[in-house]
Design brief:
- The complex is a heterotrimer of chains A (160), B (763) and C (293).
- With 160 residues, chain A is an alpha+beta fold.
- Chain A is built from 5 helices and 5 strands.
- In chain A, helix 2 runs antiparallel to helix 5 and helix 3 runs parallel beside helix 5.
- Chain B has 19 helices and 30 strands.
- In chain B, strand 11, helix 6 and strand 12 form a beta-alpha-beta unit.
- Chain C is of the alpha+beta class.
- Chain C has 3 domains: 48 residues, Uridine Diphospho-n-acetylenolpyruvylglucosamine Reductase, domain 2 (2-Layer Sandwich); 119 residues, Uridine Diphospho-n-acetylenolpyruvylglucosamine Reductase, domain 3, CATH 3.30.465.10; 107 residues, 2-Layer Sandwich (Enolase-like, domain 1), CATH 3.30.390.50.
- In chain C, the strands form 4 sheets. Chain C has a 5-stranded antiparallel sheet with strand order 4-5-10-6-7.
- Chain C is globular and about 60 Å long.
- The relative contact order of chain C is 0.12.
- Classes of the chains: A alpha+beta (160), B alpha+beta (763), C alpha+beta (293).
- Chains in contact: A-B, A-C, B-C.
- At the A-B interface, helix 2, helix 3, helix 4 and helix 5 of A face helix 1 and helix 17 of B.
């Protein structure tokens, strides 16, 4: 069953025919080639497939593609601007928050959403907001450091 | 000697690719018209397949092929990611078929479908009709070893795969000379690697009819060999490509899906077929960590000197051997270095059961044996009324010690310094005193545990590693290695080593991260914490060869003898004063385009290591125990490692963080659970299998004691696996200190702690 | 790809109930965090889905003039957690909401789905029980309002007829005004987990006696439940440790926990006794009482 949908993908308008049976993950990865969206479990347990839907983090594996209709979707491919790493990406690189890299796109997107929320988070709140991502490589330590650094850097940017 | 790049926290060479989503993993590549493969799994733990009817499945539109044991080669093959051995008696057990004719665990692959998409494939699986003769499910080693139990594999009596151990010295004499002989029993549970990227591969026949397999593996060259064995085709007819890998931890040091994937493409005339395991499948039908039961006896003098050690172990390997008895052997072997006693006897038995297959997992048998022995030592210290640290210090190995059996020599040992550092970090003495007499509902304690490990597998297996360097016109280089980057950071460390030797900035060392068995030099892969030590030496040798060739070339250009020259900061300089002779780029251009002497510089080096440097380390932990609920909270945890020289502190710390986190999960929450009657896995998903989230993970402290091992490039020793070894016993010992209750079975989850506290009268 | 055979989008509640009436095979999908996972695991096949995602009125959380709090079935856990009406009046529900899954799940999972799923482990359920929440169920024939306690019929079974849909939860001020409440989720992990036990308590005090105590438990029986005996016992009792211990002991009497591979009955009962008291310690302070030493 096909359905035409229109959405914004990393700032560009997309008109696309999807099968109602497809998840947003399926469409982004296998139909549109946005392979930065990773698949680690398929049932919303690992967070690797996180994308931003209208600025909100969503596990794209359990989000039907038809639901993207009219929405603004962002993937990891849309985070660096003009080849420049974003504040969050830069922080992940600098803090050594990347190992195998499979959880990284999702975590960068979640951190980006936190940064863009403009809210301040205590360390415990930040951990709670990052808790929808499993990582088996890093013990989360440098991820947390990177997230804290991102929010600090974001705050500085706002103040400037 | 001070280094300019080695020892610095340079950024990962793949970090930018990974934060931008550009890093490509196996499933990120596409072949046109790729078909999908799916596996039918046995619902029974132990059953003979009487008949299979695939006609309905085959008739389903969209189904391209149905495979069963009747249609795939019937060649038994081993799956462990070990180097091949020319000695048949030293080879891994060949007990696996691509598709089995007898189900040996719930989830065993009994048939497979290739179809146009996954929904069709799944529907087809349901149409395959199989008649089983159900046998008794043997879900424990005790049941499997029982007299008269059915045999899981016909050639293994009592279902015992192997029982080779070791013995040296006169243990009876050692015990009789001891003032005390203590005994204890300990048990660990099966756990799973839970790398974020599940096993995935795709395979096709290329234009020349060669089999190409792109796969998420730690061991591309071994995959090539085993696929060749399984399909009974020449090994050179197989090409294996390994892109970025989303974690492995040993689970991808095994050949799991590739032979079946290869059979699938052959069944459809070489059309590309993708075989991807779901998380639920990966948690059943890849590998687990062997569960062990230990019985230990230690004889000591009254001042705490260990005279003799006896360890009996039962290791549950599940339905197929995979790494099998190597796990028990290796654990026992690596254990020997820490507390050399005059006499020791190790009696391990590895047993088949009708459970998912156990294989390699970070630490390879050592987390189990060190949990047992380090717990045992704390009980001894308690009984002797001795500080646990003091007891260990009396028994630590000394530099110069030569292991009687492996002949490996300890050339560097920083365990004493590691312990001293950890003790200070956690404020041991102060807290031991503070937490002495507690009675409330929340009690705190500090504990510690030590380990020894190895760098690679010498002398058990061949340790061969290849590195290739090509210098470009601008003086930058490409580095190719056969060892695999799977997240641990080896590519970055190799880049640093090359940069150090060639006087280049790291950015000018381009590491080809993809391994392709047609192109990359031979290396057995990523396992045994061997890359920095074994492959690192190959990389260093390759870089030194390029350097020597380059300086020779410059000698020819300038008449300045090569031995007076050096490479620094992209220049050829005089060694004695650093004065620039010429820019590197100028020389490099000449190597390409000098009409008479031009000959681009390359090196293709192989290193066969017959040495093994022993790394050491310790975990210190502080816990708070909620007596009423049985919950254990980790307040502080520090791992201090002697891994020789640290090439990249930030990456090394990252390795330790991940290992400690995995160790905390092993200690407190993780366990793959099975129904004892049916053998069915109960929690094969990330919701029910309790690997820690960020909220469950405390701040992890890391320390290094940098010794310099002469056998490692730049003085390195292994680091990859060691961090996971000692957290569990350290946490167990901290709980013991807090409550006086000995939790000798992992994991120490609330249910189990509750039961023990109840027995102990704390609740 | 999901094994979906049909997908219709309802524009309004009346549209949705008309569609339900016309096709009893339709399965409502909202956040999708239960339905899609069931499809993925093959527990549902060839689903014909009726999406209610576009029905804006079901997303609302508001307080009526009489003080009743209305929570639309489509309110997400993230929305509930961040909603001042919830924080100010029934913080225990905010605690329950934020304990559920992880952030990405909370962004899409709805409270309606959580309850209609019928699981005893539903994170919102024990608190809705303690709050005496009522459910408004709509069908083409009209509507009915059912107390949450009566909505649960058994494990995975709720009193929702094939042509009915849940539109909102109603929480009367009598259920929360003057009460202090607290929710404890006891699980093996601090996030991304299902409860081993969920304990939600509400208490109203005057001076140093309990006027009313309400205890809702999840995973203490086949459905969420209330601890009536313990609640009766508490009425009028002085607030001190022994009373709490008595409440804890009696709370166990209302439970019917089972031994599973997740936890033993004995352990769950022990947790009921212990955690009911711990939750009360916090609730008492929130109700204006003093901390019990």
């Amino acid at each position: 069953m096909a359905k035409k949908i229109s959405f914004t993908l990393n700032g560009k308008a997309v008109n696309f025919e999807v099968d109602v049976r497809e998840s947003l993950l399926d469409v982004l990865r296998y139909r549109l080639g946005y392979t930065g969206v990773k698949k680690g479990c398929g049932v919303g347990e690992c967070g690797a497939c996180t994308v931003l839907v209208d600025g909100m983090t969503v596990d794209s594996c359990i989000y039907l593609a038809v639901w993207a209709d009219g929405r603004e979707i962002r993937t990891i491919e849309g985070i660096a601007q003009d080849g420049e790493l974003s504040v969050v990406q830069q922080a992940f690189v600098e803090e050594g928050a990347v190992q195998c890299g499979f959880c990284t796109p999702g975590l960068v997107l979640t951190t980006t959403a936190l940064l863009e929320s403009g809210r301040e988070y205590t360390r415990e709140e930040l951990k709670r907001e990052l808790s929808g991502h499993f990582c088996r490589c890093t013990g989360y330590k440098n991820i947390l450091k990177a997230a804290e650094k991102s929010l600090e850097a974001g705050k500085r940017q706002c103040e400037e | 000697m001070p280094y300019s790049v080695v020892g610095k926290s340079v950024k990962r060479v793949d970090a930018v690719a990974k934060v931008t989503g550009k890093a490509k993993y196996t499933d990120d590549f596409f072949e046109r018209d790729m078909l999908v493969g799916k596996i039918l799994r046995s619902p029974y733990a132990h059953a003979i397949i009487k008949s299979i009817d695939v006609s309905k499945a085959r008739a389903l539109p969209g189904v391209e092929a149905v495979l069963t044991h009747l249609t795939v080669p019937k060649v038994k093959f081993p799956t462990a990611g070990h180097p091949y051995s020319l000695d048949p008696s030293h080879r891994d057990k060949a007990d696996r078929l691509i598709l089995t004719d007898k189900a040996r665990f719930v989830g065993d692959s009994v048939a497979a479908v290739v179809a146009v998409d996954e929904l069709v494939a799944e529907k087809a699986l349901k149409l395959i009709e199989i008649e089983y003769e159900v046998l008794e499910a043997l879900t424990t080693p005790e049941a499997a070893m029982r007299e008269g139990a059915p045999l899981i594999h016909e050639d293994c009596e009592q279902n015992i795969l192997a029982s080779r151990g070791y013995s040296f010295g006169d243990l009876e004499a050692a015990f009789s000379e001891s003032d005390f002989v203590f005994e204890g029993e300990y048990e660990t549970s099966p756990v799973q690697h839970c790398h974020l990227e599940n096993q995935v591969s795709y395979a096709y026949l290329d234009g020349e009819g060669r089999l190409v397999i792109v796969t998420s593996t730690q061991i591309p060259h071994i995959v090539r060999r085993i696929v060749g064995q399984a399909l009974d085709i020449p090994w050179g007819g197989v090409r294996v490509i390994k892109p970025y890998v989303g974690g492995g931890f040993g689970n991808k040091q095994d050949v799991t899906i590739e032979p079946l994937n290869a059979a699938m493409t052959l069944a459809v005339g070489g059309r590309p077929v993708k075989l991807e395991l779901s998380r639920e499948e990966a948690m059943i039908d890849t590998r687990t960590r062997h569960a062990f039961k230990f019985r230990i006896k230690t004889g000591l003098t009254k001042d705490g000197k260990i005279n003799g050690i006896y360890i009996a172990a039962v290791s549950n390997t599940g339905a197929y051997a995979s790494h099998g008895h190597s796990i028990a052997s290796s654990g026992g072997g690596k254990f020997r270095y820490l507390y050399p006693a005059q006499a020791m006897k190790y009696e391990p038995v590895t047993v088949y059961t009708n459970l998912p297959v156990a294989g390699a997992m970070r630490g390879y048998g050592t987390p189990q044996i060190f949990f047992a022995y380090e717990s045992h030592l704390d009980e001894i210290a308690h009984k002797l009324d001795m500080d646990p640290i003091e007891l260990r210090q009396k028994n630590f190995v000394q530099v110069g010690h030569v292991d009687l059996l492996s002949k490996n020599r300890i050339l560097s040992c920083g365990i004493r310094e590691c312990v001293a550092k950890g003790k200070e970090l956690i404020r041991w003495d102060e807290k031991r005193e503070l937490y002495k007499n507690q009675s409330g509902d929340k009690r705190r304690g500090v504990g510690m545990a030590c380990f020894s490990y190895a760098s690679g597998t010498h002398p058990v297996s061949i340790e061969v590693a290849g590195a290739r360097i090509v210098m470009n016109q601008d003086g930058s280089v490409q580095l190719q290695v056969g060892a695999t980057e799977i997240g641990q950071g080896s590519d970055t460390v190799f880049a640093q080593m090359v940069a150090e030797v060639l006087g280049l900035p790291v950015e000018m060392v381009h590491v080809i991260s993809t391994q392709d068995t047609d192109i990359t030099p031979f290396d057995t892969g990523s396992y045994a914490s061997r890359q920095t030590y074994i492959t690192g030496m190959a990389v260093k040798k390759a870089a030194e060869e390029v350097k020597a060739k380059l300086l020779d070339f410059v000698w020819g250009m300038t008449d300045i003898p090569a031995e007076t020259l050096d490479l620094r900061e992209r220049n050829i300089v005089f060694k004695h004063n650093g004065e620039v002779v010429m820019p590197l780029e100028q020389a490099a251009m000449q190597t390409y385009y000098d009409t008479v002497f031009g000959r681009p510089l390359t090196s293709d080096t192989s290193n066969n290591a017959r040495v093994n440097a022993i790394p050491f380390g310790v975990t210190f932990a502080e816990v708070e125990v909620d007596i009423k609920t049985g919950k254990i909270e980790v307040l502080e945890i520090y791992n201090v490692h002697d891994s020789g020289r640290i090439v990249n502190p930030q990456l090394a710390q990252g390795q330790v963080h991940g290992g400690v986190s995995m160790g905390i999960g092993y200690a407190l929450s993780e366990q793959l659970l099975f129904d004892e009657k049916t053998g069915k896995t109960l929690n094969n998903n990330l919701l029910d299998y309790k690997l820690p989230t960020i909220m469950d993970t405390p701040d992890i402290g890391v320390g290094f004691v940098e010794t310099e091992d002469p056998t490692g490039a730049f003085g390195v020793k292994a680091l990859g696996e060691p961090p996971v070894i000692s957290p569990a016993p350290a946490l167990r010992n901290a709980v013991f200190a807090a409550t006086g209750v000995a939790l000798n079975r992992l994991p120490m989850n609330p249910q189990r702690v509750f039961e023990k506290f109840k027995q102990a009268g704390l609740i | 790809m999901y094994d979906i055979q049909g997908y219709i989008e309802a524009e309004s509640v009346s549209d949705a109930v008309a569609l339900l009436a016309s096709n009893p095979r339709l399965k409502i999908i909202a956040g999708g965090t239960d339905v899609l996972i069931k499809l993925r695991h093959g527990q549902m096949e060839g689903a014909e889905l009726l999406s209610i995602r576009k029905i804006k009125e079901l997303e609302r959380i508001e307080q009526l003039a009489d003080g009743t709090i209305v929570i639309g079935a489509l309110a997400t856990f993230a929305q509930i957690f961040h909603e001042p009406i919830i924080h100010n009046n029934i913080p225990a529900l905010a605690e329950a909401a934020v304990s559920m899954g992880g952030p990405q799940i909370r962004n899409v999972a709805t409270i309606g789905g959580n309850i209609c799923n019928g699981a005893t482990s539903a994170d919102s359920a024990s608190t809705l029980f303690a709050l005496d929440a009522r459910l408004r169920l709509r069908s083409s024939a009209g509507e009915r309002v059912v107390p949450v306690q009566e909505f649960y019929l058994g494990p995975g079974k709720v009193d929702l007829k094939p042509d009915e849909m849940l539109s909102e939860f109603l929480i009367s001020p009598a259920g929360f005004r003057g009460f202090g409440g607290h929710y404890i989720k006891f699980a093996m992990r601090k996030a991304m987990d299902i409860a081993t036990l969920g304990v939600s308590v509400m208490c109203k005090i005057s001076g140093d006696v309990f006027r009313e105590v309400k205890i809702g438990l999840g995973v203490a029986g086949p459905t969420p439940l209330r601890c009536v005996e313990a609640e009766e016992f508490a009425k009028g009792k002085a607030i001190y440790a022994e009373t709490l211990a008595g409440i804890g002991r009696l709370a166990v009497k209302s439970t019917n926990a089972r031994t599973s591979w997740r936890a033993s009955r004995e352990y769950r009962e022990h947790l009921v006794e212990e955690l009911t008291q711990r939750a009360l310690h916090v609730a008492i302070v929130r109700a204006g009482g003093a901390e019990i030493g």
